C-alpha cells in the first residue's frame, strides 16, 4: 500500500498502525519556534476502539488504507455472527461479534447501517449519530417527583437500558444518541 506523509493526513483518513486499521480522530500540526515542526494526532483502531496518541515529525509517513463505507441492511444474528445484506446486490456480509462491538445494542432488524471495508475486507460497522427505538419496559413514574428533572431506567427493544424522563412508558418510541446512550427525545 502507499505510504502517506503524516503532514498530509486529516480527520477521517484511514491508516495502518501496529498492523491494525485505524482512523485519524484528531490532528494538529505544531511548529514551535526554533524547532522542527511535528504532528500531534490521535488514531482509533477500528477493530478494538483503542486510541493511540502519536507525536511524529512532519517528514515521517504512515501506510494509508483504502477505507470504503457502504450501506447495508441488518438481517439477523446467528450465534456470534451478525448478517448484513447489501440493498442492491443482495450480497450477505457477516460480521463477528468483535467487529460489531458496542453497536450490537443498536442493531434492529431491517434497519440500514454503514459497513466499513478496509482494502475490501470487512472491518466494522459505523452507527448513525442517533437511533429511534421502542421502549419495552419502564417502571411507572412516581407522582410528585416531577419538580426536578428526574429520570428512570427504561429497557429498549434491543435490551439497551437508557435513562429517560418519568413520562416515557412502554410502547413509546424514543431517539437515543449512539455516542453515549443518552435520551434525546420522543420520536414519531
UniProtKB/TrEMBL annotation:
Its main location: cytoplasm. One of its GO terms (cellular component) is cytosol. Keywords: Cytoplasm, Elongation factor, Protein biosynthesis. Residues 69-123 form the Translation elongation factor P/YeiP central domain. One of its GO terms (molecular function) is translation elongation factor activity. It comes from the Bacteria. GO terms for biological process: peptide biosynthetic process. The keyword Cytoplasm applies. It holds the Pfam family EFP_N. Pathway: Protein biosynthesis; polypeptide chain elongation. Residues 131-186 form the Elongation factor P C-terminal domain. Coiled coil: none annotated. It is found in: Cytoplasm. Involved in peptide bond synthesis. Stimulates efficient translation and peptide-bond synthesis on native or reconstituted 70S ribosomes in vitro. Probably functions indirectly by altering the affinity of the ribosome for aminoacyl-tRNA, thus increasing their reactivity as acceptors for peptidyl transferase. Belongs to the elongation factor P family. This is Elongation factor P.
Amino acid at each position: 500500500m502507499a505510504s502517506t506523509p503524516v503532514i498530509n493526513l486529516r480527520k477521517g483518513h484511514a491508516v495502518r498502525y501496529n498492523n491494525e486499521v485505524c482512523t485519524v480522530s484528531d490532528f494538529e500540526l505544531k511548529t514551535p519556534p526554533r524547532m522542527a515542526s511535528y504532528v500531534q494526532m490521535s488514531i482509533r483502531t477500528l477493530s478494538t476502539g483503542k486510541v493511540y496518541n502519536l507525536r511524529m515529525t512532519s517528514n515521517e509517513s504512515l501506510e494509508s488504507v483504502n477505507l470504503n463505507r457502504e450501506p447495508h441492511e441488518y438481517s439477523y444474528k446467528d450465534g456470534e455472527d451478525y448478517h448484513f445484506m447489501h440493498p442492491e446486490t443482495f450480497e450477505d456480509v457477516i460480521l463477528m461479534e468483535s467487529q460489531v462491538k458496542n453497536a450490537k445494542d443498536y442493531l434492529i432488524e431491517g434497519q440500514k447501517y454503514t459497513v466499513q471495508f478496509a482494502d475490501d475486507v470487512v472491518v466494522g460497522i459505523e452507527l448513525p449519530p442517533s437511533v429511534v427505538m421502542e421502549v419495552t419496559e419502564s417502571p411507572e413514574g412516581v407522582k410528585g417527583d416531577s419538580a426536578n428533572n428526574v429520570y428512570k431506567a427504561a429497557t429498549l427493544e434491543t435490551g439497551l437500558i437508557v435513562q429517560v424522563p418519568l413520562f416515557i412508558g412502554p410502547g413509546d418510541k424514543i431517539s437515543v444518541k449512539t455516542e453515549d446512550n443518552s435520551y434525546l427525545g420522543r420520536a414519531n
